[in-house]
Amino acid sequence: MHASTTFAVSILFALPCAHAWGVVGHATVATIANNYLTPGAQTYVAGILGRDVSMASVASWADDYRYTTAGKFSAPYHFIDAEDSPPTSCSVDLSRDCTKSGCSISAIANYTTRVQDTGLSDTDRMEAMEFIIHFLGDITQPLHDEAEEVGGNDISVTWDGETTNLHACWDTQMVEKIAGGENSTATVDSFANTLIAQIDNGTYESQKADWISCVDITTASDCALQWAQDANALNCQYVLQNDESGMELDGTYYTGAVPYIELQISKAGYRLGAWLNALAAAA
Ligand SMILES: *[C@@H]1O[C@H](CO)[C@@H](O)[C@H](O)[C@H]1NC(C)=O
Ligand SMILES: *[C@@H]1O[C@H](CO)[C@@H](O)[C@H](O)[C@H]1NC(C)=O
Ligand SMILES: *[C@@H]1O[C@H](CO)[C@@H](O)[C@H](O)[C@H]1NC(C)=O
């Protein structure tokens, strides 16, 4: 491989660091959510997104939009920079951590209001729905609830010998390794079905009620804060527990991370389903 190609490839690998769960993670969250929609919610979502548009296909729209001139304002909505001290102390505090430009919590509240506002244009409501589908995924990625080293973006690590960063590995490389590939309908559906089986009759059966203990769309900000706190705690429990700087993550670290990633993606999907069911019931 030419040096210039190597450079281009490493830029490509570094890019997803700015995203949340990568494309596979977000599409899996949306696919899980879709499985739990009531018939009324299926009609509601289709009425807003368009009849032939799957939630999975729009789940990463917000990541493309944030890099456009029109969508730049939405970049801070993908995370909340918790100014805590992992691994000693983890916490999210809305007044401390949500800046004037907004954060995931204010964005979830805003778009939950907007998607219900029939006075808005169809496009505005569609965008609100697409933001909700995306941000309920983002908020379960622990490094999206963390200011430390720019949510791990500044922690340089290697993945299978390639230089990348901790945040990118959580968004993309580790998720793709668990799912068994890059973005494709087959990969996403199979990963989602594995997790749905755990939610219905497996590991998560007894936990799933906790995941949706707060799905009150009239107190969206309170619920979103709880979701952020829940994910942020994992930074102390595992994600930032040791000094990961310079570590090769495709090994022991990955093995230890798998249960957390599967849990967080399952939780996001199940919760998103419940959130959309609540929106449909209120419509
Ligand atoms: C709510 O969303 C709209 C549309 O994207 C945006 O213009 C507005 O600034 C947002 N408000 C808040 C408080 O985030
Ligand atoms: C992911 O794959 C699906 C199925 O091939 C496709 O429709 C979608 O556009 C892809 N998403 C991205 C962001 O590339
Ligand atoms: C698994 O759970 C689903 C959903 O709750 C239920 O419909 C199905 O009958 C269960 N299957 C088994 C084998 O328990």
TrEMBL record:
Keyword Nuclease: yes
GO MF, any single term: metal ion binding
A Pfam family annotated for this UniProt entry: S1-P1_nuclease
Keyword set, alphabetical order: Disulfide bond, Endonuclease, Glycoprotein, Hydrolase, Metal-binding, Nuclease, Signal
Single GO BP term: DNA catabolic process
Keyword Disulfide bond: yes
Signal peptide region: 1-20
Homology family: Belongs to the nuclease type I family.
PANTHER family hit by this protein: ENDONUCLEASE 4 (PTHR33146)
The protein's name in its UniProt record: S1/P1 nuclease
Organism: Imshaugia aleurites
Lineage, opening ranks: Eukaryota, Fungi, Dikarya, Ascomycota, Pezizomycotina
